[in-house]
Design goal:
Helices cover 37% and strands 23% of the residues. By secondary structure, the chain is of the alpha/beta class. The longest helix has 21 residues, at 96-116. It starts with a strand and ends in a 15-residue tail after the last strand.
Length: 496
């Protein structure tokens, strides 16, 4: 067990409240990973003041110099990859193969940032007047509040921290209370790589106290949040009233379509990975499977057989396929949706129960669950469950499949398996989602491409890739007149 402290102005400090909370292993609740400060608005204010002071110097460091620090961050993360992955599995539960991938995504994001710092372009465009140049450049905004979820404890914080800092901003981050240790270790890596004191500050604690304090502080210029749509609406409301920049990446109810001409074995692999990878605890998880009618019975028979062979257990075991849910409360939420599905008339094909065999009795395990004969109006087909529960729906043809696919309030990720090139391209056109996969599951985003969704999945911003830097910067338009005379743009004085 390790005792963690807030990271403010380059120093490790206890909360002024003197209170703490424990972080435990969801695969073995007896194991305490660490003890963390239960912080207050006073701690947040101290962190923001530190970030505000650091901003004045940090923003003046050239982009390429800041990018060199990002390169060093990547190098240190490479050295500590296995250490970070094992910590993440212990505090979040997902299997070690996935946490290694989570760390690798953070490494890749740092490497991308190290390149971006030398090529983040503005535009140079012609003026309508002679002897005059027009260009744009991107400028930082100030102190950002970053609020991150528990399901990707390294990757998502790096999606926010790296572009935020590289752009010249400073930040205060509140990591999820279920997975605070990963961000704590990441902050130490950034300090070791050369990020000056105060540029990144970490404050631990709950959303009602720490999150609200960040959100409402007048010196916070913007908030980047990943989490539920309910909390996202609250953040958007407060930011809107105060004209703060606001980036929201919210929930999903992602659908995977399998047409009768698809490679069924490939589709089966994709469904299993999309639905039960990360124990279904991804915003992009495959939570709806839409099967063309003629293959419905065959596919669900094969799916049931494969799902029941998935091995549950502690994610540090290399042979385990599915780890625990992150908490007892999350497991109860998942089970409550299973009960809802039964009451709605869906047929439980497999799973639907707590798993307590052997060592799993000490953790929050739940069997991979599949409902069939689900209709689009059922709650289990409409609401985000965030667990290993898959709803299977029937479609008579491609057109109905697309209609079902789009029939939710979310619009994050979608997938279609088909050998028909025309239908694949039509699905790309018609899918009301920010991400579309062809012959691949609904999960698997790459860090150098935009990530985000439509409808209730967010507010239009895109993390990942070049678009992340648009979130954390303002466009400044510059006019340089070297004519030596007063020229009046938009006044009709051009003589030809």
């Amino acid at each position: 067990m390790k005792e963690y402290k807030n990271f403010i102005d380059g120093k490790l400090l206890p909360s002024k409240s003197g209170r703490t909370f424990e972080n435990r292993n969801p695969a073995n609740w007896d194991e305490v990973i660490g003890v963390f400060p239960k912080s207050t608005a006073e701690d947040v204010a101290q962190a923001i003041e530190s970030a505000k002071r650091a901003y004045k110097k940090w923003r003046q460091i050239p982009w390429p110099k800041r990018s060199e620090i990002m390169r060093r961050v990547a190098e240190i993360m490479i050295q500590k990859k296995e250490e970070l992955a094992r910590l993440m599995t212990r505090e979040m539960g997902k299997v070690i193969k996935e946490t290694r991938g989570d760390v690798q995504e953070g490494i890749d994001t740092a490497l991308y940032a190290s390149i971006q710092g030398r090529k983040y372009f503005g535009y140079t465009v012609p003026s309508e007047l002679p002897n005059k140049s027009c260009l744009t450049r991107r400028e930082p905004l100030g102190v950002w509040g970053l609020i991150t979820p528990w399901n990707f404890p390294i990757a998502i914080p790096t999606w926010k921290i790296f572009p935020c800092l590289l752009s010249g901003n400073t930040a205060v981050i509140k990591p999820a209370t279920y997975t605070p240790a990963s961000v704590g270790e990441l902050a130490q890596i950034l300090q070791e790589a050369g990020v000056p004191d105060g540029v990144l500050n970490v404050v631990y604690g709950g959303g009602g106290e720490v999150g609200e304090a960040i959100l409402n502080h007048p010196d916070i210029v913007g908030v980047s949040f990943t989490g539920s749509s309910e909390i996202g609406r609250r953040i958007g409301e407060v930011c809107g009233k105060r004209l703060k920049r606001c980036s929201l990446e919210l929930g999903g109810k992602n659908g995977l379509v399998v047409l009768k001409d698809a490679d069924l074995e490939l589709a089966l692999e994709g469904v299993l990975w999309g639905a039960f990878g990360t124990t279904g605890q991804r915003c992009t998880a495959t939570s709806r499977l839409i099967l063309e009618e003629s293959i419905y019975d065959e596919f669900i028979s094969r799916l049931k057989e494969r799902a029941e062979k998935l091995k549950l257990g502690n994610g540090l075991d290399e042979d385990v396929d599915v780890g625990p849910l992150v908490s007892e409360a999350q497991r109860q939420t998942v089970h409550s949706y299973v009960e809802i599905g039964k009451k709605e008339g869906a047929r439980l094909l497999t799973g639907g129960e707590v798993y307590k065999e052997g060592e799993c009795a000490r953790g929050w395990f739940y069997r991979p669950t599949i409902f069939v004969d689900v209709t689009p109006d059922m709650r289990i087909a409409q609401e985000e469950i965030f667990g290993p529960v898959l709803s299977v729906l029937r479609a008579k043809d491609f057109e109905e499949a697309i209609e079902i696919l789009n029939g939710t309030t979310y619009g994050l990720s979608s997938s279609i398996y088909t050998r028909d090139l025309n239908k694949a391209h039509k699905a790309i056109e018609l899918a009301e989602t920010g991400i579309v996969y062809i012959n691949a599951p609904t999960i698997g985003a790459e860090c150098h491409l935009p990530f985000g969704g439509m409808k209730n999945t967010g507010n239009g911003h895109r993390e990942g890739g070049w678009t992340a830097y648009e979130i954390f910067t303002e466009v400044k338009t510059v006019y340089i007149d070297y004519s030596g005379a007063l020229q009046k743009a938009q006044i009709d004085t051009w003589e030809g």
